[in-house]
Design a protein that fits this description.
- One of its GO terms (cellular component) is membrane.
- Keywords: Membrane, Transmembrane, Transmembrane helix.
- InterPro entries: EamA_dom, EmrE-like.
- It comes from candidate division WOR-3 bacterium.
- This is EamA domain-containing protein.
- The chain contains 12 helices and no strands.
- The chain is mainly alpha-helical.
- It has one domain.
- Helix 1 crosses helix 4 and helix 1 packs antiparallel against helix 9.
- The longest helix is centred in the N-terminal third of the chain and has 29 residues.
């Protein structure tokens, strides 16, 4: 019981930090800061933080050959791709909406498992798929009620769905990496360091050649905050939480990122909720919950 409480503390710290992510990013997007530049700089900060953490805890392992192909795939598709798509989405959508679309990831995990691993979806997973699809339709139909998002709204939806898809790739691929190491968080963080290092190298041209770079102290403050707390510390806390909690619990808990993002966005960016956002988001959240509950049942049977 004590270990579970420690795991929950680690998890909620990570979730709260990720709940600031969308709001800070949306602020920078509204300030016309180049979001690809923001994503790239975050990689450098996160990589440096992982390096310092591993050196301090004496767990640094620079062996890049270990599971190199898997690490490379996670880095290019799951981390670099997802981060760039996430930050592009924030140009067109609120942080809450982007987080809702990112929580479509369980649906894409099901599809990847079906096409790659030949795992047939269960009844609950099919229902979850339908609910997610209905949630997207409801949000799209509510365009006129998103008063500050009418410009390029459909383009934002497109990028948002791709964000969820790329995060699905990350969850699917990283599960294959993390599963054998669930009780070795320092080993997982070593892999994260290598993944972020590859991502930093991949996006480095963006740092030097992008336009619309930050011009204010506030811009740099929030980029630093996102790099330290969301790209670095949140991942560390989350992976330590995974060593204390069962996977089904952490899957359900991840939904709280939407709640924290919404609260922060209402307070700091004056987000106006509407029935389409609430209903569509609830359908997508419910689909993720069903998939997590289904995972719990399958684990119980195993």
């Amino acid at each position: 019981m004590k270990e579970k409480k420690i795991g929950l503390v680690y998890a909620f710290v990570a979730l709260f930090l990720w709940g600031i992510h969308g709001v800070a990013g949306r602020y920078l997007a509204c300030e016309n800061v180049n979001m690809l530049f923001v994503a790239a700089v975050r990689f450098f900060i996160g990589t440096f933080l992982f390096f310092i953490f591993l050196v301090f805890t004496k767990n640094l392992d620079f062996n890049l050959k270990e599971k190199f192909k898997l690490v490379l795939l996670i880095s290019i598709i799951g981390i670099t791709g997802n981060s760039l798509l996430y930050h592009i989405s924030l140009k067109y959508l609120s942080g809450t909406l982007v987080m809702i679309f990112e929580n479509l990831s369980p649906i894409f995990v099901i599809l990847l498992s079906f096409f790659i691993d030949k795992e047939k979806p269960t009844f609950y997973e099919i229902i979850a798929f339908i609910l997610s699809f209905l949630g997207i339709i409801v949000i799209v139909l509510g365009k006129e009620h998103f008063l500050d998002l009418k410009d390029n709204f459909y383009l934002g939806i497109f990028w948002g769905i791709l964000t969820g898809m790329s995060f699905g790739f990350y969850v699917y691929l990283s599960s294959k990496l993390v599963a054998p190491l669930r009780e070795k968080p320092e080993k997982i963080i070593n892999f994260l360091f290598k993944i972020f290092l590859i991502s930093s190298i991949t996006v480095s041209p963006i740092v030097f050649f992008s336009s619309n770079k930050p011009t204010k102290f506030e811009h740099w403050f929030w980029i630093l905050e996102m790099g330290v707390f969301q790209s670095g510390l949140a991942y560390i806390f989350w992976n330590y939480a995974l060593s204390y909690l069962p996977v089904n619990s952490t899957s359900i808990l991840f939904i709280f990122t939407i709640l924290f993002t919404t609260i922060n966005e209402i307070i700091f960016l004056k987000l106006k909720l509407n029935v389409f956002l609430i209903l569509g988001g609830s359908l997508i959240i419910l689909s993720g919950y069903l998939i997590s509950k289904n995972l719990k049942k399958s684990e119980g049977k195993g």
